[in-house]
User: What shape does this take?
Amino acid sequence: MNVRQGREGQPAPDRRKADRALPKGRRVVHRLHPVEFPQDIPNPWLGVTMATRVKLVKHAVTREQVYRFAHGCVERGEPECAAAAVICFEWLQRPENVIAGHIKWGGYRTGPKPTIRIEHHKTGAVIDHPLEERLATGEVVKFYEEAEAVLAKLTRRGVR
Assistant: This one.
């Protein structure tokens, strides 16, 4: 058995962290204490490869699963959790960004066109994402009708 593997060939979590931290640690120590590393002796670790691991696949949830969860949350009196799940799924946001306030009530259905304003936390870009479209026939096509039904269950807090 390879030392870097746990039971049944799976990598041990603590070893994975060490495998990622050791090369950086060696470079830092070498940089901070160069006199401890004689120049005439090459670094024996430079050509050594680490044991690789097979990464597990995280399966995406389906629309049906998200809305079953959301409707269950609403039935149990937790519409905030339902809204967070729907926002993450429909507008591809991370839960921590929704909770941190990168999507606000002030950016929902404001202005001449019905949109939801999404602030992308990494780039700072603010995007107005359309929620519906009016066709030439006058018919209105709602893109996120089920998501908006979940958002309608929320109490608007923090709206000025």
The radius of gyration is 25 Å. The mean pLDDT is 82. The longest strand covers residues 115-119. The chain has five helices and four strands.
